[in-house]
DNA sequence: GCCAACGTTGGC
DNA sequence: GCCAACGTTGGC
């Protein structure tokens, strides 16, 4: 089992939006970066856990925990001309973009980006690396354990 | 709104 | 295949 961090703009889909979805599950649509797509396609497995991260907002940080709830499958928005994620170069017989489904495990207190940066234990965390722009990054088990136990105060 | 950093595009 | 120009991300 692997751990992940997935960025979402709360204006688009916040942790509370996720909680309000049927089954508390949402398709992680809109990924238009090949590295992030490949991680979903090749590395993610149903049952993996992910930090749900709020980005591009007044208080960036981890807002909850989610579970990968499906394998990767074609992202419907790429074929929707009304969608801002529409990709006219993608063909239904050979879809370019994929998404997984993500299900809420629990909302947590907001662990801010500043807190993450301040922890020496997280110095090598991928999402904190200089210039990182990937919206989906792997999280080491030790980093996961540190954040959930020491910052979120969840039982091990 | 600024801007650093990185990804993508497209001419050659 | 190179690489300059352009677009996007995302914190501040």
Keywords:
single chain, 156 residues, alpha+beta, ph1033 like fold, 6-stranded mixed β-sheet, two-stranded antiparallel sheet, 5 helices, 28% strand, globular, DNA-binding
Could you give me the name of the CATH homologous superfamily? ph1033 like domains
Count the strands?
8
Overall SS class: alpha+beta
Largest sheet: 6 strands, mixed
Q: Which percent bin holds the helix content?
A: 10-25%
The assigned CATH architecture is Roll
Distance separating the two termini = 16 Å
CATH topology assignment: ph1033 like fold
Envelope shape:
globular
Count of helix runs: 5
Give me the Rg, rounded. 15 Å
Average pLDDT for all residues: 95
Parts with pLDDT < 50 across at least 5 consecutive residues: none
Order of helices and strands: EHHEHEEEEEHEH
Number of domains: 1
Structure description:
The strands form two sheets. The protein has a six-stranded mixed sheet. It has a two-stranded antiparallel sheet with strand order 5-6. It has one domain: ph1033 like fold (Roll). The longest helix is centred in the C-terminal third of the chain and has 11 residues, at 141-151. It has helices at residues 10-13, 15-20, 34-43, 113-118, 141-151; strands at residues 3-8, 25-27, 49-54, 61-68, 73-74, 98-99, 101-112, 136-139. Helix content is 24%, strand content 28%. The chain is α+β, with helices and mostly antiparallel strands and 156 residues long. It binds a DNA duplex (12 and 12 nucleotides) through loops.
């Amino acid at each position: 089992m692997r751990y992940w961090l997935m960025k979402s703009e709360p204006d688009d889909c916040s942790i509370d939006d996720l909680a309000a979805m049927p089954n508390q599950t949402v398709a992680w649509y809109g990924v238009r970066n090949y590295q992030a797509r490949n991680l979903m396609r090749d590395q993610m497995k149903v049952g993996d856990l992910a930090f749900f991260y709020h980005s591009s907002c007044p208080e960036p940080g981890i807002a909850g925990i989610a579970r990968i709830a499906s394998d990767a499958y074609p992202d419907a928005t790429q074929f929707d001309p009304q969608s801002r994620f529409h990709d006219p170069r993608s063909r239904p017989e050979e879809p370019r973009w994929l998404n997984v489904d993500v299900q809420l495990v629990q909302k947590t207190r907001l662990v801010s980006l500043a807190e993450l940066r301040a922890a020496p234990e997280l110095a090598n965390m991928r999402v904190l690396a200089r210039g990182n722009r990937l919206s989906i990054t792997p999280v080491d088990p030790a980093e996961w354990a540190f954040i959930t136990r020491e910052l979120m105060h969840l039982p091990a």
